[in-house]
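yo

u said u wanted the structure for the complex thing, so here. seqs first:
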Amino acid sequence: MRRVRFWGTRGSLPVALTAAGLRRKMTRLLRNAEGRRFASDREIESYLESQDFAVAGTYGGHSSCVEIETGSPEYVLCDLGSGARAFAQAALARHGPASPQTYHIVVSHVHWDHIMGLPFFIPAYIPGNRIRIYGGHPELETALRRQQDRPSFPVDFRAFKADIEFVRLEQAQDCEIAGMRVTTKLQHHAGDSYGYRFEDGRRTVVYSTDSEHKLADPAETDGFVSFFRKADVVIFDAMYSLADAVSIRADWGHSSNIVGVELCQLAEAKHLCLFHHEPAVDDEAISGLLADTRRLEEITRTGAPLRVSAAYDGMEIEL
Amino acid sequence: MQISSRQFADVVVATPVGRIDHAAAGLLEKALMPMLEQAASGHGPAVLDFAGVEYISSVGLRVLMIAAKAMRARNRPIAIAALQPVVAEIFAISRFDKVLSVFPSVRGAIETMSAPALAAFDAAAAAGLG
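structre next:
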């Protein structure tokens, strides 16, 4: 594995930066510049780099889609949220439509925000492409076909001309995908979701989204600690505060930054990546969450430091 | 983690001491719930004196949420008091400071709950027992 690339990081539904939100960012950037003049684009870039990401950037709004770059020519994606469209456009721009490719797509579950990108996934329409869609859900194929039935969408699943196959993944039964060993884990979420651990013998990435940790059962906690054990990156659903996750949003199937830090510390993971951001929160709130989480990691650290980041659309993690 | 309790008039003050980590959270729940049951059945509020708590995990925080829900269901107030700085930060990061009543001191918490309990607490403090 070479890197992880995020194409969609938002939970529940896509969001977009509004004109008013963009105006607020520009106002702050101009105010922070204090009348400074920039002689080149490089100086502008350097200035923007010096600013808080919530001001000079945006976490973005596509729903879940994460690429694991393996170093092989075959693509590996986690989930088919709206970010899958952006991924597909980039892949087509790289190869052109006439060059057949293989896409391995591992799906956490069939809630809409995790599958809504498929109808816009252009490689699926192109003959010669090979697409393998994996998941723990028995209804995966049904759900993907159904979302393109009329009147939900004008183009039927049968319009896909790529060679598409569905592969059912079984809990605790490893399989091999694009040269990686993949372990599947059932997670607590309405209608079930599945987490995936990818290992290539050198690096380990865990994709664990839409997973509530009830905290009451030590055996369940131990199971996730094993699943995250010594991972290089854990992509973790940190949608809610812990207070919300155990009270008004209990049983909504999501987790918190606090539980993410604890599980990663217990598992001696190296990097916790906060993921599946709540759509109601803005960039400043996500940056605040990131700062809080880094502070929590610092004050509760008992072993090696755990790196903490907050995923944004376009972010890359080198492995 | 150890836990004890004292009664000041109608207020129960429960005092856990140590680290409330994943392993200790179950002990906290087992020890705390009967104390709160006693407080609620006596129609009294409860204060958790956290001065001796060095750390609390998510599982421990969940126990506090269960305790708060149990007390609120009986319309009895519950407060957490005297957080150490690290624990206060964990409360803030988890947003538990937004959903539980948190006070800088046990006395400050009792003051909002019961005049007789405050008098008893002050008398015990004056006698060196508070």
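The helical segments of chain B are 22-41, 58-73, 85-94, 96-99, 106-111, 115-126. The interface with chain A takes residues 22, 55, 57-59, 61-62, 65, 69, 86, 89-90, 92-96, 98-99 of chain B (CB under 8 Å).
cya
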